[in-house]
């Protein structure tokens, strides 16, 4: 199923019901130039023992992150437990981060919901709360119907109605759905869609996305530290890496080695990051990320239920994955 | 990973943080006897052209359903597009159905959310809105962490805090997650958990669940008309069937033939329902269900975005699947 | 992708290169009437400690099976470890079984290979060795290319060149491939294709196959005891059940209860067979089947490498699955 | 499940039944030093119109390949249609290649079978036919039982009894099975196991394998041109690439750019190879590989049945994937 490569054609295709607000009201040429290059931790959300958002601890984490050469922060990504927060909490957390974040750092806020309408509303609230860009995950409950036309329609409507640039977000481990290449190609032509965070990690697909969107200045971010160097090798421009919540300087150092062509050093560092990264993502998830944050001087704490604390055996496995690579 | 079969043991295992409110405050012996036997359509939610809930059309559908020998209705199941509704809309729809529904019919309301806390809150609102029981889907975004202990913890807390009985809901096609047998076995011992709607359709698993929960009066409902007769053969007691929105009398007739042992007639009818059922579920989804409803005298209409209307080719395929089995 | 329903059309479609030998040389009307109804154990292959086929032990098993009211035996099914045998061994085992088997019992021999050519050759050898019918598994190594046209072509050529009737064999757990409905429908019209052994266990699909091949006298066999009763309920005519190697009388009793409409007794027996069946198939595989055979008075013994003996923990789990259902 | 990292421990674990012939009879220190670095086409097998191996055309292809700076050839890989060849044919093809191949090029022969015994026998025949090393695919029919201990046992026995070094081969798209990391780690310590051809393409896993086998001089080869540059970036030493049958010089050029650190040129070339590579592998398979070979001056021709020729639409798609990247 080939999408028209011309944005004009896509517009016609999708014309009914769309109000391309961006055409009159915003300077999208500027938006399109927002430079995403660099490393972003998708920050965790600390909770109090009563499972309320702990803004004090969040603020303390932010002050520590301010000393690390991140390009910015992702707020309300999967590692922020956004599906467990109310809409109000999601917006409040973004506001709190905005107040604390230095002006030269980007705030990318997750604003994806299942319905297009809810996503647009939350996107606009996130922009009002100070987000520089929004990260919009693929809707996924009706995955059997989320083919390219449906996804193109969804993201186009959101981008048309977003006051800030949009970054697409594909995370198959959580959604059971990969954003298809033809949808990415079509969407890359939208002036208010900047790029893609790809957490799927299919490096062939990542290389192909870079190749097929070359004329669009479309920016691809690796969605995990596990394949960061490989993603740079095929043309990605940065990474949104859970592990950067824990080993932020090291992930930034890997970025630096990759972009400056110091490949042997990069390779050695990359290899030492794979197991800790897998431990705090695929293998043991957000509870492990938060546990590891505690070990490295950040506030992690408990997750909201139904996410459970690590068992003793899991904690030991987590420690081993950091120790055996020389991080603990 | 074997769960203790004894509810006492499960209670001890899960004791910390649980407030088994039901122990003091409700008559769960009564709750446990709520008889679920029969057929339930998981009703669709009609929308206006502006994508608002169309309560007028909903009411007209309900009046038609009142003449069909359903055991009750499921409100806010997957076919009700609940992930696209706000919490307020979800509750309002339940209230509207309650006002219309004859007193002898059960109202089972979907109240599942990703977090335990939100699920408990919505469960209590659904009970207040008049639900006789709640249908609670497995949380699924963090599917890698939704193992049996996490799911047992989640459903136990919900059941502990629910004023009405709970029915578990496993729908892997949407959630990417199957509720494991050991979790079902453990949860079947909770006095406020009545049964399971299984939409996975693994008939061996369904038979085993019936077998392993035999002492608990645990009631299994087939989650689709496609395997309804097979599910009866291995011990299910009813069905929540999307197709019953369209061919309600016929699904009830199939139930009747199954429970009265008229197997040849049942088989012939079951076979004619498989393709129409697949068309409005797995193959073409909710938009097809709503289209077919229109053909059979009900209000279907459009879905909320990002669900797209059927293409012309899909509409023809849908029609063929009804025609070739003699329904159109 | 719809296949023509008319055999004439299929023939034209596939005409090049096909030599429909059956048209002139055999009485396929007779072949088509071969009645498959009943239960078949897919017999295990005993080995000596040196991993040679142990024909003596095989013979002793056969004498015990002769006293059980099986319809026949499947030789060289998945449970016979056929992928580990040479072509010569496969044929020799069939010859040995033929010598021993009473004349009124069917011998169905597995003759599937990856290439069409090799499958035809082995099919003809199996017929010469005394097979009444052949069971032909889907080729699967190039699974990405095994779409309906390729599979229809393959099975058509095999059936055209087979001196005995062909039974299709779909076993996704081993092949990673399900024989698609449209291919089954097309192939059901071939006069030398009798039916299908379905080990996938998708009961909706099984019901639909029965429905869509109704005019062809196409016979569906359940490929596992786990869903035997459900398969009967939707129109299957028998079963090829690994568990029948161990609990042969009981599986035949379940058949008897199903076909005579004694549903409550059937259900109770079916439920007690699910766990033992899962243990000797999906969960623990052929080594468990052979271990359980030893417990019930048959020769099982070791598998060929790389299949490993059960660990102690696995043996205990296997025993539990028989004990907790009252079989040990 | 952690395997002992020490080969001694593995030996003890696996001791029964193993005859570590290599300990006495061969100079494995030498074997371990066989340098695999470079590019290998897994050559296709040309057939005559009667589906016999066409040795004449094979020879003509080999003469053309001799002019390309390959490190060697893989004979009887998946692209050689080995599952469709008899054992005799498999050996004859290797002999034919050996006669033609310049002495300084490596001949790696596929010798994997389902059983350990058959694999050992074919391995020895391949060595006798002139193979410098053997490529041994994971057995896969009983995939549910092919856990790490079974696979370690299998490959250890094969390596113990092989006169030439062994390269492991993991190709999940065909086998439905990924060789687990712990098995690779254990096997990397065997003196007669040189490395791994990884066709799965999980770049994080590839990086981790390189990292965890660092002390063993274990050599990882990318199993596809689609992720060749990424694999080099994380430490692979070469590639076995179907596309090298068609664009051999270009794949070798990509290797050259990668190892000499000319990353921008490498990236541009890599990106242009992804679509043609996908077309001749995952998307359209061996028939497409053979069609593309024809376009580029090699003998491709038809596949053995059940592999079907490309449809007209597929041929056009294949052509587009080469044209749009500037290769046709």
Automatic annotation (TrEMBL), chains A, B, C, D:
> EC number(s) in its UniProt entry?
4.1.3.16
Which residues does UniProt mark as catalytic?
A: 169, 197
Q: Might you name a Gene Ontology BP term for this protein? A: glyoxylate catabolic process
- The EC class name is lyase
Query: According to its UniProt record, which reaction does this protein catalyse?
Result: (4R)-4-hydroxy-2-oxoglutarate = glyoxylate + pyruvate; (4S)-4-hydroxy-2-oxoglutarate = glyoxylate + pyruvate
Q: One GO CC term of this entry?
A: mitochondrion
Residues that, per the record, bind pyruvate: 240
Q: Which GO terms describe its molecular function?
A: (R,S)-4-hydroxy-2-oxoglutarate aldolase activity; 4-hydroxy-tetrahydrodipicolinate synthase activity
Q: Which UniProt keywords apply?
A: Lyase, Schiff base
Q: Oligomeric state and partners?
A: Homotetramer.
Q: What does this protein do?
A: Catalyzes the final step in the metabolic pathway of hydroxyproline.
Q: Which family does it belong to?
A: Belongs to the DapA family.
- The name this protein carries in UniProt is 4-hydroxy-2-oxoglutarate aldolase, mitochondrial
Q: Which organism is it from?
A: Takifugu bimaculatus
